[in-house]
């Protein structure tokens, strides 16, 4: 089981980027204009350097104050179970800036100067090049090799809303916020109380509003401009000031792609054309994925029970295919990556028989090996694991047992683990798996490639996804097998076949419960993660003397109701299955959950259309209203409702005990699915939403109106 000891997260100590800028020296460059080609020009004035495309301004630097600085720093890292508490000690600082020259060189605009400070001096250059798609590429180079911190800032304004930066689970609009980007365990609670306090007290793993598995250094704004940083170190994006955007990367230099467009949709198309897009799901993926554990007889019984109730089960997800162990955290798995024949006798035929009955089987794998068993021994013998500074295998302490981490920079390691995937997963007939973790690489690990683990850390989950995808391709199974990842970074959308939102609490929590799962999917969608879903009911289950966090029946059904409108409809028993309400807990739940599965399947044709659109354009399947209605100021901060494509609007119940919801309908005519009542858009409404009849609205003049109305009409409650 995707173990994830639940007390693990990173509380970073963020730098104030503004304090890194001291003064700018007078300069004598006259005002002038430069044509960069492709409809982009640069204008240099005594007050600013701006870049203007045919679609408007894309970038502006104030030159009355320094906009670039550099430093030498040393990170002080407290690492525990993929929770990283990071402080940065600045040793040298070049906070003063001079501009010495500005001119065209081979079609590029090159700005050069010096950065200085106490015992600190370096030359720098920034090279700006236009691209053919209303883009501006720029590269910052710092000449002093001793410096390993880069700080830059450019103009913004108070009306500029900001979206993206990967999966952000607490905030959709990031204006006024100061996120850090570092892939890690998201934490337990992340600000919801009292669990955050308890997790922090006991394990230092409560997390905070910016901790995330999948940070991505890309953001777009309501000025229809976007910025993507090709760097991979720990970074801080400071949007707190109205007048500026300040950014820090803990490495030397920056490599940036920026775009200007006429709409946020166009920006996502441009961004994903560069970074990649998710493939289409196979046809079987649109039914219910039943997540069960317990061995052959248990899972077959639960499948039969669900099917008798009419649930369109198309996949069985058995993460315990490798066996299960009990730890203080709950039910966890044996990380040995071959079938447990005691739990699932004759595993290959077991899978084959389910396939013949129309049910695909999915498993589980991660890039670690428990310190026992033949694969671990083979990995140690052949030096397939990351090392510590003494050259020994770096053994990390997980929630219940120690494990070694695969060194994905070693080509031989990659070949070895791909062969295991091809033989033990694909070879046994599995149609997919959870490709868990990826965020666990310690920042002081020694890699085969000799790369800095501080720089490689964020790239590790991307390489893990890439490796899984390569194994599928090498086996000739592209398009037939689906693996889903939770950790990622830049280019995850190029290699993963789907995502899930990780391990939320089994709670109604704002920062780490059902609410956060939706926000994470919406923000991820604005960052290229178009194909995403969450565990139905959440995952992290905790007994506590102050408050027990166990999944209730109401929470399970409301979460299932929400996930009807995500492309993958998958359950998870959680880390303490016996404490959680399950899809099989009572006859009423079995019946109601079957109905939700039927509604999800009824939307199959629409999901397939949206999946194809996502694979061709990079537009997410679940969309914040801002993406489709950017001109409407009421949509800027909406994060608790969403559009499924363009033609379905959902206002989910996300609070305990509620049977009505309040939400906003944008321009146009919207028909309430269950009552048939039509609303004129541009209004805030309150509407009944009893359990089983969520607030769903059809876009009356939408291309899919008739088909969706027909698909959903039979599920109306009397």
Automatic annotation (TrEMBL):
Instruction: Describe the location of the Glycoside hydrolase family 31 N-terminal domain by residue ranges.
Output: 149-238
Q: Which residue ranges does the record assign to the Glycoside hydrolase family 31 TIM barrel domain?
A: 281-595
Query: Which GO terms are recorded in the biological process aspect for this UniProt protein?
Result: carbohydrate metabolic process
Q: Look at the named UniProt entry and state the broad enzyme category this protein falls under.
A: hydrolase
Recorded hits in InterPro entries, A to Z, give: Gal_mutarotase_sf_dom, GH, Glyco_hydro_31_C, Glyco_hydro_31_N_dom, Glyco_hydro_31_TIM, Glyco_hydro_b, Sulfoquinovosidase_GH31, YihQ_TIM-like
Q: Which Pfam families match?
A: Gal_mutarotas_2, Glyco_hydro_31_2nd, Glyco_hydro_31_3rd
Its EC number(s): 3.2.1.20
> Which terms are listed as keywords in the entry?
Glycosidase, Hydrolase
Q: Which residues form the Glycosyl hydrolase family 31 C-terminal domain?
A: 618-699
Q: Which GO terms describe its molecular function?
A: alpha-1,4-glucosidase activity; carbohydrate binding
UniProt keyword Iron, yes or no: no
- Which top-rank group of organisms is this from? Bacteria
| Record-stated family | Belongs to the glycosyl hydrolase 31 family.
**The protein, known as:** Alpha-glucosidase
């Amino acid at each position: 089981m995707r173990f994830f000891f639940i007390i693990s997260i990173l509380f970073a100590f963020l730098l104030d980027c503004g304090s890194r800028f001291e003064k700018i020296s007078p300069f004598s460059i006259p005002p002038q204009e430069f044509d960069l080609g492709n409809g982009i020009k640069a204008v240099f004035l005594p007050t600013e350097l701006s870049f203007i495309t045919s679609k408007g301004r894309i970038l502006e630097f104030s030159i009355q104050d320094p906009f670039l600085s550099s430093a030498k720093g040393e990170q002080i890292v407290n690492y525990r179970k993929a929770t990283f508490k990071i402080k940065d000690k600045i040793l040298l600082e070049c906070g003063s800036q001079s501009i010495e020259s500005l001119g065209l060189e081979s079609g590029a605009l090159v700005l050069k100067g010096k950065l200085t400070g106490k015992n600190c001096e370096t030359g720098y250059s920034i090279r700006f090049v236009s691209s053919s798609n209303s883009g501006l590429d720029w590269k910052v180079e710092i000449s002093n090799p001793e410096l390993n911190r880069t700080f830059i800032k450019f103009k913004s304004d108070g009306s500029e809303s900001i979206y993206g930066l990967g999966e952000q689970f607490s905030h959709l609009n990031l204006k006024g916020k100061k996120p850090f980007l570092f892939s890690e365990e998201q934490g337990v609670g992340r600000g919801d109380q009292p669990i955050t306090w308890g997790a922090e007290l006991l394990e230092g793993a409560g997390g905070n509003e910016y901790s995330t598995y999948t940070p991505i250094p890309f953001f777009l704004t309501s000025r229809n401009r976007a910025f993507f940083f090709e760097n991979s170190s720990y970074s801080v994006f400071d949007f707190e000031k109205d007048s500026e955007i300040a950014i820090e990367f803990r490495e030397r230099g920056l490599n940036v792609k920026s775009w200007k467009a006429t709409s946020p949709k166009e920006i996502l198309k441009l961004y994903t054309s560069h970074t990649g897009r998710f493939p289409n799901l196979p046809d079987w993926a649109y039914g219910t994925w039943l997540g069960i554990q317990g061995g052959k007889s248990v899972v077959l019984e639960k499948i039969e029970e669900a099917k008798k109730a009419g649930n369109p089960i198309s996949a069985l997800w058995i993460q315990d295919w490798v066996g299960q162990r009990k730890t203080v955290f709950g039910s966890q798995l044996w990380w040995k990556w071959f079938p447990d024949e005691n739990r699932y006798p004759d595993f290959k035929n077991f899978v084959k028989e389910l396939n013949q009955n129309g049910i695909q089987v999915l498993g589980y794998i991660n890039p670690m090996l428990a310190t026992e068993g033949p694969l671990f021994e083979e990995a140690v013998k052949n030096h397939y694991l990351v090392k510590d500074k003494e050259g020994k295998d770096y053994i990390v302490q997980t929630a219940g047992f120690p494990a070694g981490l695969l060194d994905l920079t070693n080509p031989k390691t990659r070949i070895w683990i791909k062969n295991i995937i091809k033989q033990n997963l694909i070879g046994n007939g599995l149609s997919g798996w959870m490709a868990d973790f990826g965020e666990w690489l310690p920042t002081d690990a020694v890699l085969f490639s000799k790369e800095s683990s501080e720089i490689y850390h964020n790239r590790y989950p991307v390489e893990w996804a890439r490796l899984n995808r390569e194994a599928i391709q090498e086996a000739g199974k592209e398009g037939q097998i689906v693996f889903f990842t939770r950790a990622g970074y830049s280019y995850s959308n190029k290699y993963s076949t789907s995502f899930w939102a990780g391990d939320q609490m089994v709670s109604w929590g704002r920062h780490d419960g059902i609410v956060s799962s939706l926000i994470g999917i919406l923000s991820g969608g604005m960052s290229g993660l178009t194909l995403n879903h969450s565990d139905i009911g959440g995952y992290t289950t905790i007994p506590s003397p102050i408050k027990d966090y166990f999944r209730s029946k109401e929470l399970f059904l409301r979460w299932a109701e929400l996930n009807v409108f995500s492309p993958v409809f998958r359950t998870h028993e959680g880390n303490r299955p016996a404490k959680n309400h399950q899809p099989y807990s009572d006859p009423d739940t079995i019946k109601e959950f079957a109905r939700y599965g039927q509604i999800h399947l009824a939307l199959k044709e629409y999901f397939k259309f949206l999946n194809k659109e996502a694979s061709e354009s990079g537009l997410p399947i679940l969309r914040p209203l801002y993406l489709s209605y950017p001109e409407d100021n009421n949509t800027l901060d909406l994060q608790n409702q969403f559009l499924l494509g363009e033609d379905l609007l959902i206002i989910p119940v996300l609070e305990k005990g509620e049977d009505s919801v309040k939400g906003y309908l944008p321009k146009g005519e919207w028909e309430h699915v269950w009552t048939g009542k039509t609303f004129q858009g541009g209004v805030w409404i309150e509407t009944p939403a009893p359990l089983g009849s969520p607030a769903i609205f059809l876009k009356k003049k939408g291309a899919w109106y008739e088909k969706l109305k027909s698909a959903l009409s039979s599920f109306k409650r009397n």
